[in-house]
Amino acid sequence: MTTVGRESRVPRQRDLSAALLRLPIADAPLAFVDVETTGLDPWSGDRVCEVGIVRCQGEVEIDRLARLVNPLRPVSPGAYRINRINPGMLAGAPTFDQIAREVSAALEGCVLVAHNAGFDVGFLARELALAGLPRPAVQVVDTLSLARRQYRFRHNGLSALSAAFGLAETPHRALGDALAVRGIFRRIVAEALPAGSRVSALLRLQGRTIDWPAAPAEPVDPPGELAEAIAMALLDGKRLLLVYESREGTKTERWVDPIDLSSIGGEPCLIAYCHLREEQRTFLLRRILRLSTSPEASE
Questions:
Q1: DSSP secondary structure string, 208-236?
Q2: Burial (CB count <10 Å: 0-12, 13-18, 19+), residue 286
Q3: What is the mean pLDDT of residues 206-211?
């Protein structure tokens, strides 16, 4: 019997991921994904408490996965205000490691589509790593990035886009949000890309590649109030007003569209499109002196 180890999986993952780019969108395996969580940061110990995946082959739905997940920790008050998932609902639910293989199989070899995809992919990467499973071979498409680049809506949150596109309202739960992502994705593809476009055209349209993050073995320090505020802006698709101090001590005020929370050499940072410089920039969180959001200024 041949044992398939980590070394042999990596080239296979790369080959599958590359092959996905060449497929016409109409024929591609698609996984529309949403996770509900106990908080905003998987690297500081927050966990998934619900998973919703709608798997399709082009326009045809193949399967659905909807699971409550016992996170083995409380749902934060902020998360509860969004998802309304209470302890009684989670008490008899499986833990993530008990459904991890099912989740991995639902994603394997697919174009993973999510809204603010970095959030969902970050949690899935952490949970699958904790379960001892390798990353699935996927390409990641973010409907938030697509909407921001293609339209000029005042708000780009999932609910706002669903209303703007006239989609049926769904409950703010994992499966309902995954279905909303599917509706938004189909609308953007129909309006923004010519018939027969390949998956690679989606990545060009969203302006960046979203990589599957490497999961650290241990949780890092909690993100703090500033990172939580940025994470909420990412979730809601809101623009941020920053007062930022440069390395030289110069203070500037600028509007930015947040793209992702990341780190440089272990130091937390915000990746965002800066309207002052008219380009994507990286901002160290320790140099952000003040931060606010303005619904009127959101796209």
A1: S--PPPPPPSS-----HHHHHHHHHHHHH
A2: exposed
A3: 90
Task: Pull the structure tokens for residue 257.
Answer: 């569209």
Which residues are the active-site residues? Answer: 172
Task: Give the contacts of 123 (CB within 8 A, at least 6 positions apart).
Answer: 35, 37, 42, 46, 47, 48
Most confident among 33-47, 181-195, 226-240 (mean pLDDT): 181-195
From residue 105, give the alpha-carbon distance in Å to each of 54, 100, 133, 174, 273: 12, 9, 11, 18, 34
d(CA 53, CA 103) in angstroms, rounded, equals 8
Delineate the domains of the chain, giving CATH numbers in brackets: 6-206 (3.30.420.10), 224-297 (2.30.30)
Percent of the chain residues topping a pLDDT of 90: 60
Q: How many CB atoms lie under 10 A from the CB of residue 38?
A: 25
Per the CB < 8 A criterion, the answer to whether 69 and 49 are in contact is: yes
pLDDT at 31: 98
Distance CA 135, CA 126 (A): 10
Report the alpha-carbon distance of residue 70 to residue 48 in Å, rounded: 8
130: CB partners within 8 A, 6+ apart: 96, 97, 215
Find the Cα–Cα–Cα–Cα dihedral 150, 42, 11, 204, rounded to 10°. 10
Measured CA to CA, the distance from residue 298 to residue 257 in angstroms comes to: 8
State pTM to two decimals.
0.75
Say which amino acid occupies 186.
R
Question: Quick one: DSSP state of residue 94?
Answer: P
Cα separation, 31 vs 182, whole angstroms: 9
